[in-house]
Amino acid sequence: DAKTTQPTSMDCAEGRAANLPCNHSTISGNEYVYWYRQIHSQGPQYIIHGLKNNETNEMASLIITEDRKSSTLILPHATLRDTAVYYCIVRPDNTDKLIFGTGTRLQVFP
Amino acid sequence: ETGVTQSPTHLIKTRGQQVTLRCSSQSGHNTVSWYQQALGQGPQFIFQYYREEENGRGNFPPRFSGLQFPNYSSELNVNALELDDSALYLCASSSDRKFYGYTFGSGTRLTVV
């Protein structure tokens, strides 16, 4: 079973920041937080991952709370092409297996 | 740099038949994993291959089997197809055992009738 809890759906206005929350209250010290997204009819796309520190790349920022029990994916300026299902995944360091939940369906509107 | 390619994109099979799905990994990637995604659900891990050997398996019956070839391309075989096997089958590759993230293909949509 997935070790994360995400809202089923969210809306965001184009050009605004999209903040997608994820709860992973049972996360262990050696487990990473990964974010993927899946645009309709495509395979999941890697966005970002982190262990303890906040991370930023060209796509997004990942904010992990100090106790590591939750995280937030931030898309700083959402566009219509960011409409997708976003998956938050906890992955142990000793495995490559990803356990997906049902994700958050983000709808970006004009 | 090419991504992960899967073939065919769509397939219709009859219950009881066998099917083979194919995947070409991203250049430089030697680990491949297969996932099954039912409609409205997240992908479910089937198994993983590393350097031609199975290296982990999810909760799928033995009629789901795979192969990885020396060029790191891969096949997923499903025997005795059931209606519930209808799903999107995703192949994902990654480089070495240092895992930064998978590159997924666009999948094969299998319909069992």
General description of the model:
Chain A is 0% helix and 47% strand. The relative contact order of chain A is 0.35. Chain A is globular. Chain A has no helices and 9 strands. With 110 residues, chain A is mainly β. Chain A has a 5-stranded mixed β-sheet, with no helix packed on it. In chain A, strands 2-7-6-5 form a 4-stranded antiparallel β-sheet, with no helix packed on it. Chain B is mostly beta strands and 113 residues long. Helix content of chain B is 0%, strand content 50%. Chain B contains no helices and 11 strands. Chain B has strands at residues 5-7, 10-13, 19-24, 31-37, 44-50, 53-57, 64-68, 74-78, 87-94, 103-104, 108-112. Chain B starts with a strand and ends with a strand. The relative contact order of chain B is 0.33.
Summarize the structure.
Chain A has 110 residues and is mostly beta strands. Chain A has strands at residues 9-13, 18-23, 31-38, 45-50, 55-56, 61-64, 70-75, 84-92, 104-109. The radius of gyration of chain A is 13 Å and the shape is globular.
List keywords for this structure.
heterodimer, A: 110 residues, mainly beta, 5-stranded mixed β-sheet, 4-stranded antiparallel β-sheet, 0% helix, 47% strand, globular, B: 113 residues, 7-stranded mixed β-sheet, 50% strand
Radius of gyration of chain B: 13 Å
- State the end-to-end distance of chain A: 36 Å
For the report, how would you describe the main beta sheet of chain B?
Answer: 7 strands, mixed
Structural class of chain B: mainly beta
Assembly level: heterodimer
The secondary-structure element order of chain B is: EEEEEEEEEEE
What is the N-to-C order of secondary-structure elements of chain A (H for helix, E for strand)? EEEEEEEEE
Shape of chain B: globular
Mean pLDDT rating of chain A:
92
How many H/I helical runs of chain A?
Answer: 0
Percent strand of chain A equals: over 45%
Radius of gyration of chain A, CA atoms, in whole angstroms: 13 Å
**Strand order across the largest sheet of chain A:** 1-9-8-3-4
Q: Give average pLDDT of chain B, whole number.
A: 91
Number of strands of chain B: 11
Low-confidence stretches of chain B: none
